[in-house]
Amino acid sequence: MNVTEKVIREQFAFWQGAASAPLPQITQRTVVVVGCGTSFYLAQSIAAAFNEGGRRAIPVPGAEWARRMGTYLADRSDTLVIGLSRSGTTTETVQAIEASRAAGLPTLAISCEEGSTILQAADRAIYLPTHKEEGIVMSVSASLMLIAGLRLAGVTPARAAEAAAAMAAVEGADDLLRGKGHFVYLGAGAMYGAANEGGLKLMEMSISLSQAFHPLEYRHGPISLIDEGSLVVMLYSAETAEEEAKVVADVRAKGAKVIGFGGPGDLSVALASKGPARAVEVLPALQLLGEKVALLKGLDTSQPRHLTKVVTL
Ligand code: F1P
């Protein structure tokens, strides 16, 4: 087993730390959550959780917020900027925190690297200790930052045992994944960030093409790509599962195989949680799917093509 897979499987030992870490109270009316890559997709789920909790929140890629915050938010009064970065040194996310401070906005950073640049740059800092061997592909750190971010938003994240059960449920997915060349991740609300992250993980690990959409959006054009080579991962939302099951029936009729988290599919994975907590519950399973496709293609995810642990400008 390579180190990437090992860390994905052993990540639950670190979850309690993020689930119990002391967190600051958020008092601002508006919250902007920034990050790059995986960290941006986590920001999407965290911002959704803030909104559901009654705050106004938007996720913005670090580079965008640093360069054109006015394009994303005209009224920046009473606004907190939260920056997520595993490494704490990704240029654009650090720039986003620095630009926010220069604009007089309060900042909070979350990172898995002790004493990292972003933790020093922000007014307040949350350090989440994690697996030292994580390597390039982000897995356990993503789970920990999502857990802490959801807690900041007032959501109790799914528990490690629940996520471990969802991960165990995809162990037998190889027959569905074998020979597939087109992967689609669908999720609504807070699950949209999880869908994006699932698609990114698969791309990075298995050098495969993936798309992520809101479930009902997929019928408005992208469905034209579906054929027998397609694998669709549906991340059901409890309150709209019935409609989402219709999309699943649609893509299956066109030849796709489906893994349904929280609803029907060729493989159906039962979920314990609802709402944004669900994003945490599915994350390790999505990470393992990326590893599985890579293994089927004979790729070593400890050395992903063209990727480095930190991207700097
Ligand atoms: C962000 C990121 C990762 C990606 C790659 C490069 O890192 O874009 O999402 O997988 O490793 O960096 P960070 O800012 O969270 O350290």
Automatic annotation (TrEMBL):
<dbReference type="InterPro" id="IPR001347">
    <property type="entry name" value="SIS_dom"/>
</dbReference>
<keyword id="KW-0032">Aminotransferase</keyword>
<feature type="domain" description="SIS">
    <location>
        <begin position="19"/>
        <end position="178"/>
    </location>
</feature>
<dbReference type="Pfam" id="PF01380">
    <property type="entry name" value="SIS"/>
</dbReference>
<protein>
    <submittedName>
        <fullName>SIS domain-containing protein</fullName>
    </submittedName>
</protein>
<dbReference type="GO" id="GO:0097367">
    <property type="term" value="F:carbohydrate derivative binding"/>
</dbReference>
<dbReference type="InterPro" id="IPR035466">
    <property type="entry name" value="GlmS/AgaS_SIS"/>
</dbReference>
<dbReference type="InterPro" id="IPR046348">
    <property type="entry name" value="SIS_dom_sf"/>
</dbReference>
<feature type="domain" description="SIS">
    <location>
        <begin position="179"/>
        <end position="304"/>
    </location>
</feature>
<dbReference type="InterPro" id="IPR035490">
    <property type="entry name" value="GlmS/FrlB_SIS"/>
</dbReference>
<keyword id="KW-0808">Transferase</keyword>
<dbReference type="GO" id="GO:0008483">
    <property type="term" value="F:transaminase activity"/>
</dbReference>
<keyword id="KW-0677">Repeat</keyword>
<dbReference type="GO" id="GO:1901135">
    <property type="term" value="P:carbohydrate derivative metabolic process"/>
</dbReference>
